[in-house]
Sequence to fold (139 residues):
Amino acid sequence: MKTAVMSAALALSLLPSLACAEDGKAIFLRTCATCHFLQRDPARRDEMVAPPIDMMSAHVREAVGGDRDAFIRRVVDYIRAPAPGKSVDVLAVQRFGLMPAIGDTFPDLTDADLRAVAGWMFDAHGGVQLPPPAMRGRM
Fold:
């Protein structure tokens, strides 16, 4: 009985993070996916108007050393006020330019929404690897 109660408590403690990941993905699909593909697709390279989010997640994760909280802070800061000096992918800025500040495009998004998207990005793309440096910009 005690084991069942502890297992249930553990499962319930995980629900907020799972709900956050689902909410973050839903927010991404409703807003960010207007420009960003979910994942890199070389066959659709000419259709891209912004870098795919799996690659951006990998770049940010690399820049912050895999720290989830630092990742979320960096993503939220960048999408609130994009600037060349904040970019983690110079080639993406060269190809696509800077994204507009999120408030210009989606003014109803809250800080909690942005943190949910950033948290989902971190959690959903943890296994994504960046292409070798010689291949970057070609994909």
